[in-house]
Amino acid sequence: MKFIDKPSGCFCDRLASEPMLEPVDIIMMTLDAEFFLEKSLYTIYKEIPVNRLIVCDGGSKDSTIKLLENFPRTEVHIKSELKTGAKSLEFLISQVKTDWFVLIDSDIEIPSGWYDEMAKNKEQYDAIENGKVYLAYHKYKIDEEKLQDGTRAGTQCHLLKTNALKNFHCDDDFMWRHTDFLLQQTIEQSGFKYGKVNSTYHVHNETERIPYSSDETKAYRIIVIDEPKYIILDKKKARQKDLDNARAIVKYLDPDYHLVKRYPGFDFVIRILDRNWIKKSNPKWLKRYDHSKSFPFFFKYLIYKYVITKNNKIRNYVMKKYRQ
């Protein structure tokens, strides 16, 4: 289901309310970003003294541009001719006019105090990454059964006449999971009319947790939400992007740079390339390429492809061991 997550509360513009703060430019790349964009921008303007929000859009066909136009001091550059994120980033950096700027994705929300906490480190660093991230996996699904008359409410989201529930009563013994049944039963058996309205909606949020954990008698199950899966829709396009990614690694990254050196996944990616192309483009990668094509490495590749990439827990464990 297509569902756009909307912000709650009033819009706040920190620079307007605190004009003595030093403003900073914000740069952002978008492409069909409508799902979480508005929620993201509400937190950005609330927390950061925004000089300009500079956006490089890759040709969005959804409501992204319309949403951006609702925010102050926004500059939107539609650059559908730019095909890579790095080139779009290069363009955005060229547009910055403040001494410091914030680079942020269009689906990120920042908490209260974020900018002030980050800015404390300006004297120590010239580039400050926010390393702590909570991954929020959203899946919006219409409860089709709940739409039908004659089915239970499940959630509590009602507008009720007080007199309709004057006979509502329950001893404090057993009724816990089926309160919605008792609610409707009481209303209708008291001579009042119960109905459903489906022309508006509510969102029932859930996350990984032990429900009612503070009550030992109720804390008997855990909610586990599976991580999202990527399903290939077009294998030909996927193969081309794999090739592009491998070429980008060899052409632009230094295999001796500490971060690149510590990332074993590159060896599995670049093995699809032609050796002569690597020799011509960046021969510093030849040693790692030749290793990736060796017979012993082939078995590692099979484990990587069919085991590690299929299980995030195993992948995280292997990465941790590799970096030690």
Explain this structure to me?
The protein is α/β, with parallel strands linked by helices and 324 residues long. The chain has three domains: 14-119, Spore Coat Polysaccharide Biosynthesis Protein SpsA, Chain A, CATH 3.90.550; 142-226, no CATH class; 235-323, no CATH class. It is built from 14 helices and four strands. The longest helix is centred in the last third of the chain and has 18 residues, at 235-252. The chain starts with 13 loop residues before the first helix and ends with a helix. 13% of the residues are buried.
According to CATH, the homologous superfamily of the largest domain is Spore Coat Polysaccharide Biosynthesis Protein SpsA, Chain A
Our measurement of the CA-to-CA distance between the termini, rounded to an integer number of angstroms, reads 42 Å
The helical percent reads 25-40%
Strand sequence of the main sheet, in spatial order?
3-2-1-4
Helix tally equals: 14
The CATH topology of the largest domain is: Spore Coat Polysaccharide Biosynthesis Protein SpsA, Chain A
What does the main sheet amount to? 4 strands, parallel
Low-confidence stretches: none
Gyration radius (Cα, Å) is 27 Å
CATH architect. name of the largest domain: Alpha-Beta Complex
Overall shape: it is extended
